[in-house]
């Protein structure tokens, strides 16, 4: 057996043994120390109800689609075991997640092993498998992040296979459809990964043109330029008053600027390698495209009923478009100079005429699968639940549109808005962003504020990565292409922006899984480029494996200590409750009671002979969401026989609830933590 196969076996054994140890520890550990996220139990309870024939419902009363579908499908057979024992499915699920951890780690090992060297792949795999940070954020919560990470990395791995085959033989429709199916699995693991699937389609179909590298970047830059133009004009504080204008400006920019850039030769190798011609075409493009966007926006504004369009935003958009498109082209000139550039290159129109049939056929093969599956999913949602998309996402966008700071509110600062914050739930590019933010806070003698220092560090890191690629431009081109870094980063950034452009409340740190994988791939890319500078020798190879073994041992020991600490054996009484809130409710309510909670995932799964109804709507029906907006949800809950509410009284009298439950509440002096148990009954006539 080859040496790296032994590494895979050892990795699987280490991850599996840790997972089995945790899975068979005291029962209460699973519910009180491992799977503690309320959101995870939304999946668990719905999966249990489906397995028992009640349909897609959390409470057995209201149909709900507030989940990502692929993880729910995985959970259904697992939580069919809940009819025998509520803890048994949690034990099985922990083992499933351990398998996903090992699978993702091995894929990272193989990716870097093929592109650079197995020892670099081993370092990436060790980090992914034994980082307690990854464990707590990606796997321990019991959410969809574990399966999303696996399919993203598998997608990158299959794209690496694609890169090694299409250069020798044209891809068949079957190959493209297979990639489309894998993209569908990525999307269904987390629906917001549709941007990654979209960017990857460009990467695949335009593979013989510089467009594959530049167009995904251009799409991101067009979005960012429009948003910055509006923010510079109206200030960030006032942005959400003009968010509709910004969205339309982004759409118009995409429709006009990409064709304009193509027609003006900004995707031609001969233009990219001729600085004078490039500068001329960039100026012509920025002026014509931005003015075109401005004219369309001025025409659309009265038709759409906008309060107004800030016309000076056109000037900002022009400048930013020139800078962003110029930046990406300068990068291409540096790293891709001489890569197939010829003066007799066909004109853009001739290139389109000779390639459009191939591009169309391949687009139908890939995007037909991707968007066909997505359309069927949305249609099924409409027929089964009355809405095309998960109700949980709609509710959080509604929260973000309300005044005040409802459940955290929309993005509160520009760093969060543009997805580059280093603190809180908006910290998308962890752990690098977290580290840079920490360094920025330590640089207290520079005379600059934390944000300025942080942005400087981001710039310096970007410059370091770029100039590392310069060390061997041929190897860098191949590695960047094989790792699919560009579509991954662009898709991940668009995912972040999609939340903040319209205002989205209660976004969470586990949303940003594609970003974390992108960080790992980029760090591995830098490490691989540095490794390629070192003369290869047998002793160096041995030394690097010794370093990997030492690092793996250190991380493995820390990982094992963490598992043993939080998942002990024999320290909890078998009679102890699995969930304290469920035990509290069972003590103070009658069997058969219907109990409302803002949240309630854990209690809903563990409670006996009672029903928990989700009041915030995240795992309730679309009809309930409409009632919430009309302030009629209180009457509805009375109609279906709600008996109690366990909630923070101050919360239910504020946005988004606005006291709509108050007429039906009878106050009781029974409290659990910061929540009060209240009796609920039909209002007096």
Key features?
mainly alpha; 685 residues; 4% strand; 66% helix; five-stranded mixed sheet
Describe this structure in words.
By secondary structure, the chain is mainly α. Among the domains are: 390-526, no CATH class; 580-680, no CATH class. Helices cover 66% and strands 4% of the residues. It is built from 29 helices and 5 strands. The chain has helices spanning 3-23, 27-34, 38-51, 69-79, 88-115, 118-130, 132-139, 145-165, 173-189, 194-205, 211-234, 243-263, 269-272, 275-304, 313-336, 348-385, 391-401, 414-417, 432-442, 450-470, 473-482, 485-500, 513-533, 538-566, 580-588, 601-606, 622-629, 633-639, 649-652; strands at residues 594-597, 611-614, 644-647, 665-672, 675-680. Strands 2-1-3-5-4 form a 5-stranded mixed beta sheet. Helix 5 packs antiparallel against helix 6 (118-130) and helix 9 (173-189) packs across helix 16 (348-385). It is globular, with a radius of gyration of 27 Å. It starts with a helix and ends in a 5-residue tail after the last strand.
Topology at a glance:
Layout lengths: L2 H21 L3 H8 L3 H14 L17 H11 L8 H28 L2 H13 L1 H8 L5 H21 L7 H17 L4 H12 L5 H24 L8 H21 L5 H4 L2 H30 L8 H24 L11 H38 L5 H11 L12 H4 L14 H11 L7 H21 L2 H10 L2 H16 L12 H21 L4 H29 L13 H9 L5 E4 L3 H6 L4 E4 L7 H8 L3 H7 L4 E4 L1 H4 L12 E8 L2 E6 L5
Parallel strand pairs: 1-2, 1-3
Antiparallel strand pairs: 3-5, 4-5
């Amino acid at each position: 057996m080859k040496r790296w196969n032994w590494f895979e076996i050892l990795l699987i054994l280490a991850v599996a043994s840790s997972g089995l140890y945790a899975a068979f520890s005291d029962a209460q550990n699973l519910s009180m120390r491992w799977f503690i996220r309320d959101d995870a139990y939304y999946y668990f309870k719905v999966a249990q109800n489906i397995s028992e024939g009640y349909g897609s419902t959390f409470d057995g009363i209201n149909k709900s689609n507030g989940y990502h579908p692929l993880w729910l499908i995985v959970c259904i057979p697992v939580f069919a075991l809940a009819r025998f024992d509520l803890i048994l499915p949690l034990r099985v699920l922990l083992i499933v997640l351990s398998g996903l951890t090992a699978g993702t780690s091995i894929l990272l090992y193989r990716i870097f092993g093929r592109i650079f060297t197995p020892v670099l792949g081993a370092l990436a795999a060790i980090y992914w498998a034994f980082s307690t940070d990854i464990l707590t954020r990606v796997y321990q919560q019991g959410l969809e992040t574990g399966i999303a990470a696996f399919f993203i990395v598998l997608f990158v791995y299959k794209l690496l296979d694609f890169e090694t085959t299409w250069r020798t033989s044209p891809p068949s429709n079957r190959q493209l459809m297979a990639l489309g199916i894998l993209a569908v699995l990525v999307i269904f693991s987390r629906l917001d990964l549709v941007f990654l699937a979209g960017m990857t389609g460009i990467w695949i179909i335009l593979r013989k043109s510089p467009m594959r590298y530049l167009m995904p970047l251009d799409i991101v830059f067009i979005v960012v330029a429009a948003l910055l133009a509006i923010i510079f004009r109206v200030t960030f504080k006032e942005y959400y008053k003009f968010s509709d204008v910004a969205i339309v400006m982004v759409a118009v920019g995409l429709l006009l600027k990409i064709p304009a850039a193509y027609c003006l030769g900004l995707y031609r190798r001969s233009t990219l390698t001729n600085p004078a011609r490039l500068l001329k075409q960039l100026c012509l493009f920025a002026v014509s495209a931005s003015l075109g966007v401005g004219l369309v926006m001025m025409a659309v504004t009265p038709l759409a009923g906008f309060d107004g369009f800030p016309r000076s935003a056109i000037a900002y958009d022009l400048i930013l478009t020139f800078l962003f498109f110029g930046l990406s082209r300068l990068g291409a000139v540096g790293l891709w100079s001489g890569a197939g550039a010829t003066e007799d290159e066909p004109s853009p129109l001739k290139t389109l005429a000779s390639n459009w049939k191939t591009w169309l056929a391949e687009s139908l093969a890939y995007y037909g699968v991707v968007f066909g599956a997505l359309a069927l999913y949305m249609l099924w949602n409409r027929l089964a639940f009355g809405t095309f998309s998960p109700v949980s996402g709609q509710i959080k966008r509604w929260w973000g549109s309300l005044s005040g700071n409802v459940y955290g509110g929309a993005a509160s600062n520009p760093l969060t808005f543009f997805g580059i914050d280093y603190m809180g739930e908006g910290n998308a590019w962890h752990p690098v962003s977290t580290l840079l933010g920490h360094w920025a806070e330590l640089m207290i003698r520079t005379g600059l504020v934390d944000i300025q220092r942080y942005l400087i560090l981001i710039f310096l890191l970007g410059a370091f990565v770029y100039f590392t690629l310069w060390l061997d431009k041929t190897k860098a081109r191949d590695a960047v292409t094989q790792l699919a870094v560009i579509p991954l980063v662009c898709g991940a950034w668009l995912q972040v922006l999609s939340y903040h452009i319209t205002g989205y409340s209660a976004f969470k740190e586990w949303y940003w899984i594609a970003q974390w994988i992108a960080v790992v791939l980029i760090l591995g890319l830098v490490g691989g480029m540095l490794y390629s500078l070192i003369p290869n020798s047998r002793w160096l190879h041995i030394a690097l494996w010794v370093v990997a073994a030492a690092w793996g041992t250190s991380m493995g020991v820390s990982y094992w200590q963490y598992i043993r600490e939080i998942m002990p054996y024999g320290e909890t009484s078998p009679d102890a409750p699995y969930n304290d809130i469920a035990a509290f409710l069972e003590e103070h309510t009658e069997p058969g009671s219907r109990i409302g909670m803002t949240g309630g995932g854990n209690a809903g799964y563990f409670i006996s002979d009672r029903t928990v109804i989700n009041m915030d709507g995240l795992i309730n029906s679309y009809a309930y969401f409409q009632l919430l907006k009309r302030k009629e949800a209180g009457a509805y809950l009375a109609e279906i026989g709600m008996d109690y509410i366990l909630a923070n009284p101050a919360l239910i009298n504020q946005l988004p609830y606005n006291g709509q439950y108050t007429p039906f509440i009878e106050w009781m002096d029974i409290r659990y933590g910061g929540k009060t148990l209240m009796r609920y009954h039909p209002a007096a006539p």
